[in-house]
Amino acid sequence: MQSCLPCPGIKFVQGKFLMAETRTSALPAKAGSFTTQASAKRQEAFAGLIFTAPAFIILVSFLILPLVIAVFFSLTDWNGRTPLSRPGAFEFVGLQNYEQLLIQGRRVDDFYNALKNTLYYVLGVVPVQTILALVLAVIVNQKWLKGRSFFRTAYYFPSITSSIVVSMIFLFMFSNTGPVNGFIQSVFPNYQPVTWLSNNDGVIHNLLGVFGIDQNSSTFLKETEVFRISLWDWISGPSVSMLTIMVLAIWTTIGTMMVVYLAALQNIPGQVYEAAAVDGATGWQAFRHITVPLLRPTTFFVVTLGLIGTFQVFDQIYVLRNETTRESTMTVAYLVYDYAFGSQTDPRMDRATATAITLFILIFVATIIQRRVTGGDKE
Prior knowledge:
The protein contains 16 helices and four strands. By secondary structure, it is mainly alpha-helical. It has a domain at 109-202 and 237-374: MetI-like (MetI-like fold), CATH 1.10.3720. It has a two-stranded antiparallel sheet with strand order 1-2. The chain has a two-stranded antiparallel ribbon with strand order 3-4. Strand 3 and strand 4 form a beta hairpin. Helix 3 (108-140) runs antiparallel to helix 13 (296-311) and helix 13 (296-311) packs antiparallel against helix 16. The termini are far apart.
């Protein structure tokens, strides 16, 4: 008979082996583990700061700091030339520059005229470039289209070309003896060449003139002023010269917007269109009820880029305007340059910065409004 060896956790009671109750006590957590976790979190936070530091430094150096400096100098009378180290280089004048810019001053008319031109430029360029970019993106996204890579490259090519070079090409094309007038004259022999880039006539005024309506037709429009500009001038529309610049801007920007829309279109699942086709939806119905709603965030992004770019238009204006069209092609962004560097005898960096801050506020307000209109504030 083999002897039973005692096993831990077993008791022999009244001739029977019974399992004994075992008790385990919870081991106290080591204090060092909490220290290790806290140290790991600190290391992660420090690593995050290190990775974000370059972007943060660039943001502060080239955006926030210049904005603060611009606000500071807009409250002074610094002319931009006097060295800041010189005693009495500037004095604080408070909101005087804003008052002379917006309320009373010898160049108040210039600001509101530039604002009118800028608004017409924005209203003309942004909707057209957005719609054309969406249409082109839908076309080049079709699988049945042959040579899709070629068309994508061709439509995008103007966007990567120097704006100055493109402006010089347009300057030649829309001259009196340029290809545009030559082509129209070949189709319509009685056509009189138009000085596209030297014409101050408003487009809406020209259309009203066809029906015999001019500024003498309405005394109310002629004599009523809003922001020191008559209502008749407010409804002039962009000048012919500005319209030509708008065509240039649309042609050079739809490529970039098309690429943005194209990327968004390729992220829409194909099963959605297949389900719509099974339910009997036509191509137009699928585009209207599927494509457009799913592209709402992209549309908000495209319109925002368009608003910022059009409010800040400068380079095309600088190349294509002349003394004849000085008033009809003046924009708010160009007015900033004109205040700061337009006069060799009376530079006004103080008013230039005040105008720049005002432009910043205009862009911010316009972005908030279009966010509500396009539904960008909805998820």
